[in-house]
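Long-time lurker. I teach an intro course on protein structure, and each term I like to show students one example going from raw sequence to a predicted 3D structure in token notation. This year I'd like something fresh instead of my usual example. Would anyone be willing to generate the tokens for the chain below so I can use it in lecture? Attribution to the forum is fine with me.
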Amino acid sequence: MNDTQTPGTDERTPASPAAPTQIADPGPLGLAAFALTTFVLSVFNAGLIKDGALEAVVLPLALWYGGIAQVLAGMWEFRKNNTFGAVAFTSYGSFWLSFAAYVQFVAPKLPAAHAHQATGLFLLAWAIFTLYMTIVATRINGVLLAVFSVLSLTFVLLAAGALGQSTGVSHAGGWAGLLTAVLAWYGSFAGVANATWKDKSLPTWPLAG
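-- Reply from a regular --
Happy to contribute to a lecture. Here you go:
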């Protein structure tokens, strides 16, 4: 035993593990990024702004906020051991990144007569993913269940509108997207407010686990 060692202790005794570092809830960030980007795109999908050239405003949002911010939120959800949040935010962040890449680099090179099929397939695949995430959301809370239910409808309508080349159905999908954005914004607002005010004054309606 050296001169500085406390009597009765063993040099080989491992140090106690450090307490885990707590991080802020990334959910409100992910929901806010999803809501804002969905809202802007849905304004065009619903036909509220008819000049298609202005739709380019969606791309920077899809890249930086809807895309990168959501992926980061998903990574922090992994850190918090929240599998649902990690899968949801990482996936929808990747949706926005892939959407931006599709619109900017892929769609302009597709044959005009068949481009709607590629767009419809892209949206249909996301509808399938969203439908099974909706099933999982039935055991989380009412806000997320509402978000995913209406988002499922949004993707189904947009996919059907693209595949069927129906402007009316696509516009209906745009209106469903606007409702999805409002619901997601509420979920984000509730998460920020409840964490900041240190109470549960804004309900999210937890469902039986």
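Some talking points for your students: The chain has one domain: 27-197. The first helix runs from residue 27 to 45.
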